[in-house]
From TrEMBL:
Belongs to the ABC transporter superfamily. It comes from the Bacteria. SMART domains: AAA. One of its GO terms (molecular function) is ATP binding. InterPro entries: AAA+_ATPase, ABC_transporter-like_ATP-bd, ABC_transporter-like_CS, ABC_transpr_TagH-like, Bact_Polysacc_Export_ATP-bd, P-loop_NTPase, Wzt_C. PROSITE patterns: ABC_TRANSPORTER_1, ABC_TRANSPORTER_2. This is ABC transporter ATP-binding protein. It holds the Pfam family Wzt_C. Signal peptide: none annotated. Residues 6-247 form the ABC transporter domain. Keywords: ATP-binding, Nucleotide-binding, Transport.
Length: 407
């Protein structure tokens, strides 16, 4: 028996976009098959597998194709090409209102959804009380759902989705409309389903929810799969991407290659002038991808063009991508001697155990004199490093700590 719950192979969904409504008619009636449209790939040749019992968070920016993918998995949409295999009964909570008749009462919609999932009235009779209890909307259960607030609608829809014992549960941003108590209630129920072996696909812009709740994560960007794997690692890469306005290097190997190429280009550029006392010529890191408590090594190469620069010092600083200052020691404050005479020099700065938590960080390097008052050369965002971990703490830094029960 297969252990695969969902298998997607080379899946694409293409929409035709028209500049004017009449262009659609022109294209359909054109005897010469003229095209008046352009193709938009909502999903572009994506492939992945979800094992039975896995909880997978799906992340990505608005318009990346997440909802389109879920609609294809649930059968609401058909793919333009590729194949999808689903093993098990699906219960889905997509956009608010999907699968509900606004003219029907809450009770009638409970039975309607049960029928759509293949349950008989007798089978739904056994479940209706637990659904009503979970939704907790009182007498409104007997009113048409068109009179419901968005919060009440979400309560009922979620109650139906998770109380019909699905093999696969799909939740698309549904928790964002509920109040805090209801969100806690939903997550607790989803944890119970998770423990029972239900496969869960969970879409949320709240990345911390994905980190805490999901075992794995799938990152989609512009209709393509960027990465799939352990949730904390994928979320950290996604957050780094978002913090840099979508300009972060998605592939670490590719990023390192670009950095090396950049370093070589900088090496070949010589810009000494009469008023230049010295300059930083090269900066390298032992790696650009870390885990908390790994060692960080930054090697700085610099040139001095004077016989000697009195009070010369070297500094290395860590920043978040939005330029929040984390830590910035220098050789003057640490009372460390570094070469300050004419020639080429190389100095290594090390942190034996880096305590940064998951995220993207920048390294600045500068050379100064006069206790850091006069800047000789400064490299802003000289290196960008990425820290990824399994989820074990929150924030930016790990601080040694302990807990004790007092009462």
């Amino acid at each position: 028996m297969s252990d695969v719950a969902i298998k997607v192979e080379n899946l694409s969904k293409i929409y035709k976009l028209y500049d004017k409504p009449i262009d659609r008619m022109k294209e359909s009636l054109s005897l010469s098959k003229n095209k008046y449209s352009r193709e938009h790939y909502a999903l572009n040749n994506i492939s992945f597998e979800v094992k039975k019992g896995e909880t997978v968070g799906i992340i990505g920016t608005n318009g990346s194709g997440k909802s389109t993918l879920l609609k294809i998995i649930t059968g609401v949409l058909t793919p333009s090409s590729g194949s999808i295999e689903v093993n098990g009964k699906i219960s889905a909570l997509l956009e608010l209102g999907a699968g509900f008749n606004p003219e029907y009462t809450g009770i009638e919609n409970i039975y309607l959804n049960g029928t759509m999932m293949g349950y008989t009235k007798e089978e739904m009779d056994k479940r209706v009380n637990s659904i009503m209890e979970f939704a907790d909307i009182g007498e409104f259960i007997n009113q048409p759902v068109k009179t419901y607030s968005s919060g009440m609608f979400a309560r009922l829809a979620f109650a139906v989705a998770i109380n019909v014992e699905p093999d696969i549960l799909i939740v698309d941003e549904a928790l964002s409309v509920g109040d805090t108590r209801f969100q806690i209630k939903c997550i607790d129920k989803m944890k119970q389903l998770k423990e029972k072996g239900t496969t869960i696909l969970f879409v949320s812009h709240a990345t911390e929810q994905v980190k805490r709740f999901c075992t794995n994560a799938l990152w989609i960007n512009k209709g393509k799969v960027i990465g799939m794997g352990e949730s904390s690692k994928i979320v950290d890469k996604y957050e780094a991407f978002m913090l840099q306005d979508g300009e972060a290097e998605i592939d670490i190997a590719e990023y390192e290659s670009i950095q090396r190429e950049k370093e070589e280009n900088e090496k070949s550029i010589i810009r000494p002038s009469t008023d230049m006392l010295g300059r930083i010529t090269n900066i390298t890191c032992n790696t650009l991808k870390f885990k908390t408590f790994d060692s960080l090594e930054v090697v700085i190469e610099y040139e001095i063009y004077e016989d000697e620069i009195p009070g010369f010092l070297l500094g290395v600083a860590l920043y978040t991508p939005d330029r929040d200052y984390i830590f910035g020691p220098n050789t003057y404050l640490d009372k460390i001697y570094v070469p300050n005479k004419y020639g080429r020099h190389k100095v290594k700065y090390s942190i034996p155990s880096i305590t940064l938590l998951g995220g993207s960080y920048s390294i600045d390097v500068g050379i100064f004199n006069n206790e850091g008052i006069v800047c000789i050369d400064y490299k802003t965002d000289a290196k960008r490093i990425l820290v990824t971990n399994e989820y074990f703490a929150e924030g930016k830094l790990f601080i040694d700590h302990k807990w004790s029960v007092i009462k």
